Amino acid sequence: MKRLKLGFQIGYWGAQPPVGVEALIAEAERLGYDSVWTAEAYGSDALTPLAWWGSQTERLKLGTSICQISARTPTAMAMAAITMDHLSGGRFVLGLGASGPQVVEGWYGQAYPRPLERTREYVDIIRRILAREEPLTYDGKQYTLPYPGGTGLGKPVRSITHPLRADLPIYLASEGPKNVSLTAEIADGWLAIYYAPTVDGFYRAALDEGFARPGARCTADTFEVAATVPVIFHDDVDEAADFLRPMLALYIGGMGAKDVNFHANVFGRMGYEAEVHAIQELYLDGKKAEAAAAVPRSLIEQIALIGPKEKIRDDLAAWQESLVTTILLYGDAPTLQQMAELVL
User: Fold this and answer.
1) Are residues 41 and 170 in the same domain?
2) Domain span at residue 119?
3) pTM surpassing 0.85?
4) What's the 3-state SS for the chain?
5) Residue 100 and residue 67 in one domain
6) pLDDT by residue (tens digit) across 224-273?
7) Are residues 58 and 156 located together in one domain of the fold?
């Protein structure tokens, strides 16, 4: 049975910056955690907090889970990655994701269609910049460099700063099978959300399809799978599940349009199509408490580790046998400590 790694997931901020993060990161590093991760939605960004807090660490990998590809041009993203990698001494992991149409079109004012094509081109441009073999040109369907128009004075250039690592790791956040296959083909790792060991075979098949494509970057043995897993130590399993129900109701019912909700599709593939439909109906009708109450405990236990320490120890066996290589968790110091005792 493989040895799992642990990462501390800070995520994106709520209405205010989180309190006590510096102490939690220091504790994660002391306990032997492998990495720390920040995120962005439509509030705080992922890079600034990671640089600020990461400057106080020595060993932890510093990852974005995720940077939204619509937030920055691929060249701007490459510049930030090069900068972060130098500042951290080669500890940066670039996690990217396409987000969804509500954020991309509503917040960034960009068209969302063909996200897989856009992701492929985005990553390809970053890889070319990191390789720094020649001045950058690109003739894609989503991106063209230099810009074909304007003054006509644009010219190919090469990064002034030499990247610390040409093979800086790039992870992709993906949920649907086609996106997961693309991730296996072009990335170094997969950032999984709401992964469940019970559907491990489904994701292994999607990843294997990507690994088998010509020019695939990794094999199953060299690929990283970092899954965000809610962890709640509590003597009462039902009460622990109640802590997660509102968040799951939000993602199932409100994170996306009714007919275009990638998170809801994940749970549908787990066999909860009827429950997902009911939760969406309640949530979109403004009945958020009822939507939360409709989230089954069985669903929660498939994607989270909840309950007494002994139960979580037993439940971890399925995660150790799965394709997951790193568990990313939120939590206070006791949660970080207890997971380190069980896993590390």
Assistant:
1) yes
2) 5-231+308-343
3) yes
4) CCCCEEEEEEECCCCCCCCCHHHHHHHHHHHCCCEEEECCCCCCCCHHHHHHHHCCCCCCEEEECCEEHHHCCHHHHHHHHHHHHHHCCCCEEEEEECCCHHHHHHCCCCCCCCHHHHHHHHHHHHHHHHHCCCCCCEECCCCEECCCCCCCCCCCCCCCCCCCCCCCCEEEECCCHHHHHHHHHHCCEEEEECCCHHHHHHHHHHHHHHHCCCCCCCCCCCCEEEEECCEEECCCHHHHHHHHHHHHHHHHHCCCECCECHHHHHHHHCCCHHHHHHHHHHHHCCCHHHHHHCCCHHHHHHHCEEECHHHHHHHHHHHHHCCCCEEEECCCHHHHHHHHHHHC
5) yes
6) 999 999 999 999 999 999 999 999 999 898 776 566 667 788 898 899 99
7) yes
